[in-house]
Design a protein that fits this description.
With 212 residues, this protein is α/β, with parallel strands linked by helices. The protein contains seven helices and ten strands. The chain has helices spanning 36-39, 49-56, 75-87, 104-115, 134-148, 163-173, 183-202, and strands at 2-7, 10-12, 18-20, 23-27, 60-63, 68-72, 94-97, 122-129, 154-160, 178-179. The strands form four sheets. Strands 6-8-9-10 form a four-stranded parallel beta sheet, with helices on both faces. A two-stranded antiparallel sheet has the order 1-4. A two-stranded antiparallel sheet has the order 2-3. α4 (104-115) crosses α5 and α5 (134-148) runs parallel beside α6. The chain is elongated and about 75 Å long.
C-alpha cells in the first residue's frame, strides 16, 4: 500500500550509531480502509486547502502556478488541454479532472475551487461527454457562475452526449460565456482573454468581457 518510502539523509554519529534524520512516506489513498492507523495521522492543515476541498467532492485537483483555470473530464484530456494552453503561450493554473460521472453540484464545487485561486484570470472548460452528459455539465456551469457571480471570462467547449441540450441550456441562461467547438481555437481564445484580464487587473481596472 506504500507508494513511497524514502529515508534521506542517514548519518553516523561519533559513537557509530546510524540515525535517520528525515523520511518521507506516501500511501495509496485507495488503501485507507486497510491502513486506518496510518491515515489517522494525516494533517489536512499541511495540505493545499483546495486539494482537500476537491477530495471531499471526489474531484482530482492539483494547483499549479499559471493563470488559466482548467475544468476537464478525464486525466488524458486534462493533460492534453494543459499542453495546448501552453502551446498558445498560456500557463494552466490547475489540473482539475471531474471524472466521468460528476453531478451538476460537483461541477459547481469545482468552479468554487478554481475561483478561490486569486491568480486565475480566465478559465477553460473542456468536456467530452461519454458517460458524462454535457447538459449536466452545462447546468453545473450555470449554477456556479450565478452563485459565485464569476468575474473571469469563461471559455466552454462541449462535445459528446447531450451536447445540443447542454448548449441550449447555456444559450438560454443569459450568462456571459464564450462557447467554442474547436479545442485549438478555445485554447487560443482563453489565453488571449487571460492576457486582457491580467493587464486590466494590473492597472486596477475591472474588465467584464462578452461576445460582440
Amino acid at each position: 500500500d506504500a507508494t513511497q518510502i524514502e529515508i534521506n539523509p542517514l548519518v553516523e554519529t561519533s559513537d557509530h550509531q546510524v540515525m535517520c534524520m528525515d523520511a518521507k512516506f506516501g500511501f495509496d489513498d485507495n488503501a485507507s480502509f486497510r491502513q486506518k492507523d496510518v491515515f489517522s495521522l494525516r494533517d489536512p492543515t499541511q495540505e493545499d486547502p483546495r486539494e482537500v476541498q476537491a477530495e471531499k467532492w471526489d474531484l482530482n485537483y492539483i494547483g499549479l502556478d499559471g493563470r488559466i483555470g482548467c475544468l476537464v473530464n478525464g486525466a488524458g484530456l486534462a493533460m492534453s488541454t494543459m499542453d495546448i494552453i501552453k502551446l498558445h503561450g498560456g500557463e494552466p493554473a490547475n489540473f482539475l479532472d471531474v471524472g466521468g460521472s460528476a453531478t451538476a453540484k460537483q461541477i459547481s464545487e469545482a468552479f468554487k475551487i478554481i475561483s478561490s485561486d486569486s491568480g486565475v484570470s480566465a478559465a477553460l472548460v473542456n468536456i467530452f461527454g461519454g458517460i458524462m452528459r454535457c447538459d449536466v455539465v452545462a447546468q453545473g456551469i450555470i449554477d456556479a457562475v450565478k452563485e459565485l457571480d464569476l468575474k473571469i471570462p469563461l471559455v466552454v467547449r462541449l462535445q459528446g452526449t447531450n451536447v445540443d441540450e447542454g448548449k441550449k441550456l447555456i444559450n438560454e441562461s443569459g450568462i456571459s460565456i464564450f462557447p467554442c467547438d474547436d479545442l485549438d481555437k478555445a485554447a487560443e481564445l482563453v489565453v488571449k482573454l487571460s492576457d486582457i484580464t491580467s493587464l486590466a487587473q494590473k492597472v486596477g481596472v475591472h474588465a467584464k468581457l462578452s461576445l460582440a
